[in-house]
Amino acid sequence: METILITGAAGFIGCNFVRLALAETEARLVLLDKLTYAGRLENLTGVLEDPRATFVQGDIADRAAVRRLFAEHRPTGVVNFAAESHVDRSIEDASAFIQTNIVGTFELLEAARHHVAGLGGDEAAAFRFLHVSTDEVYGSLGPTGAFSETTPYAPNSPYAASKAGADHLVRACHETYGLPALLTNCSNNYGPHQFPEKLIPLMTLNALEGKPLPIYGDGANVRDWIYVDDHCRGVLTVLQKGRPGEKYNLGGRSERTNLQIVDAICEILEGERPAAANPALAGRSIASYKDLKKFVADRPGHDRRYAIDDTKARTELGWETRHDFASGLRATVRWYIDNRAWCTAVQSGTYDRERLGLIRS
After folding, report:
1. 3-state DSSP assignment of residue 10
2. Nearest-CA neighbor of 359 among 64, 140, 93?
3. Which among 245, 232, 246, 248 has a CA at the least distance from the CA of 315?
4. How far is it, in rounded angstroms, from Cα 211 to Cα 243?
5. Least packed by Cβ within 10 Å: which of 17, 37, 291, 327?
6. Cα-based distances in Å from 80 to 4, 129, 237
7. Catalytic site positions
8. Residue 359, pLDDT score
């Protein structure tokens, strides 16, 4: 039986991947997570009862702990979701991003290559190390074009730079040591279990509570959006079918400006929880959730546009998305409406949806 080590398993994308892997593979899963503010055991509710899932609390940058994990569980593959991922937090203090995203990836790679060196020929050839990255490593696009797998790297935030550094380490480990490594670079994910610092859950929860909906700059920054289940299916497809040494872009082909996203959330909420009947808005002369929009100072170094060309993954591996943006966004907003207890639990004592990423002297 295959044994897959999944790092960052209690995070947003990681926990969704775990559920998919349990449903669609027969592999044993070793779930590693440091349990930071965004990696929560609440995200694995219902998962840890499965006999194929083993949870281990630990840090991918802890060399001794990672080596012990490889020795004990002898994985046949690694999927690395573990990362500090919020751009605004990286602007305030990038140290955790360097430690986890670069040093942590290095320690995983070192453990993996030593592990593979001790395997037999067929086992070594079958091993896979899949590193999950972001389109932000490519920098910013103009009004046209899209990022391909050969687009030069030009990261503009500390977060993006840390992910770019990790990507280069993965590629170098394949080229130098022959580690059977793969890379994926995805567009913006959305869906259940995303920590409320990110745009869609932040706007949904703020609107429900009658709080301002802060929009950076003019709101015209464009992102390509992919539903988290589609992304996870892409990662699983690359793990099973991808060619070692290759990278694959995974996108949703759903470009939207930030302002369009906020307006779409407000429209969904009007149908689900009309503003006129929301006690949080009573007596405030607010006719609709859109009245809560507030333009604020832009994020430093804010990339103008991202777009993913995912032709390679679609044509070579047969992967395709299953969710259109309208239905995916509606399902996501409904999930946050229905899971307010989760939202309260994961934010408690760590985050009050305050503005992050302001440069202070």
Report:
1. coil
2. 93
3. 248
4. 48
5. 327
6. 10, 8, 15
7. 135-136, 159
8. 78
- Contact call for residues 220 and 175 (beta carbons, < 8 A): no
Topology of domain 3-195+226-252+303-322, CATH: Rossmann fold (3.40.50)
Structure tokens at 66: 């990672």
- In 3D, which of 227, 217, 275 has the Cα closest to residue 251? 227
Q: Mind listing the pLDDT tens digit for each residue in 249-286?
A: 999 999 999 999 999 999 999 999 999 999 999 999 99
Is residue 361 over pLDDT 60? no
pLDDT in tens, 25-65: 999 999 999 999 999 999 999 999 999 999 999 999 999 99
Task: Return all residues near 42 (Cβ < 8 A) that are at least 6 apart.
Answer: 342, 345, 346
Sign of the CA dihedral with 20 first, then 100, 239, and 246 last: positive
Report d(CA 213, CA 261) in Å as an integer: 11
Strand order in the sheet with 222-227: 188-190, 222-227, 255-257
Q: What amino acid occupies position 187?
A: S
Distances (CA, A) of 212 to 15, 111, 208, 262, 349: 30, 46, 10, 11, 21
95-114, pLDDT tens digit by residue? 999 999 999 999 999 999 99
The end-to-end CA distance of the chain, in Å, is 54
Q: Where are the domains of the chain?
A: 3-195+226-252+303-322
